[in-house]
Design goal:
The structure holds 2 protein chains of 2 kinds. Chain A is globular. Chain A starts with a strand and ends with a strand. By secondary structure, chain A is mainly β. Helices cover 0% and strands 52% of the residues of chain A. Chain B is mostly beta strands. The chains are: A mainly beta, B mainly beta. Chains A and B meet through strand 10 of A and strand 5 of B.
Chain lengths: 106, 113
């Protein structure tokens, strides 16, 4: 079974910080990797698809990189609205989610 | 823009069957998409339940497969999920989705007597 290992599980940061979240796949998923932001009581919101493509309407401070098994989400210049949970997801074969990263205020 | 909306009972008794429906609007369920169910227990992460394509293939999460049925009603442009023999562990917000960018708002299902 495909496993997605996401780290860290919690991240404390300040407005303006650059933050990085990492996701590792247990097998090659090519670039079929998405990143979501989720706020309490809401559905996940797509930020990045195909590893590095920015979804329409998403601010450019969000970026994704990686291929194969190692992937990264970077937020450059953290804004107050960015304090939320983030999930990676592989969709190369079926769907598998990472465990999630909660970005909280330092 | 495709929109999805989940519906179904918010409370199910232990050992009974959970049934949910996802209504699709703004797009056709017979388009070249895979349609999915995902759930999220309170305070926990996202778990993929299963998906299907209108041409026939249905995939289930192996850990839940024995209790799952996903079905589609093309005439109503909707699809459904059934989970049998539910326990407390099935309490979750259930989402339907069509591709990675189109998700329903989710519906909370609580398993309790």
């Amino acid at each position: 079974d495909m496993q997605m290992t996401q780290s860290p599980s919690t991240l404390s940061a300040s407005v303006g910080d650059r933050v990085t979240i990492t996701c590792r796949a247990s097998d090659n998923i090519n670039n079929w990797l998405a990143w979501y932001q989720q706020k309490p009581g809401k559905a996940p919101k797509l930020l990045i698809y195909e590893s590095s493509s920015l979804e329409n309407g998403i601010p450019s401070r969000f970026s994704g990189s990686g291929s194969g098994t190692e992937f990264t989400l970077t937020i450059t210049g953290l804004q107050p609205d960015d304090f939320a949970s983030y999930y990676c997801q592989q969709y190369n074969y079926l769907w598998t989610f990472g465990q999630g990263t909660k970005v909280e205020i330092k | 823009q495709v929109q999805l909306q989940e519906s179904g009972p918010g409370l199910v008794k232990p050992s009974e069957t959970l049934s949910l429906t996802c209504d699709v609007s703004g797009g056709s369920i017979i388009s070249d998409n895979w349609w999915s169910w995902v759930r999220q227990p309170p305070g926990k992460g996202l778990e993929w339940i299963g998906d299907f394509h209108h041409t026939g293939p249905i995939n289930y999460n192996p850990s839940l497969k024995s209790r799952l049925t996903i079905s589609v009603d093309k005439s109503k442009n909707q699809f459904s999920l059934r989970v049998t023999s539910v326990t407390d562990a099935d309490t979750a917000v259930y989402f339907c989705a069509g591709t990675v960018r189109n998700w329903g708002p989710g519906t909370l299902v609580t398993v309790s007597s």
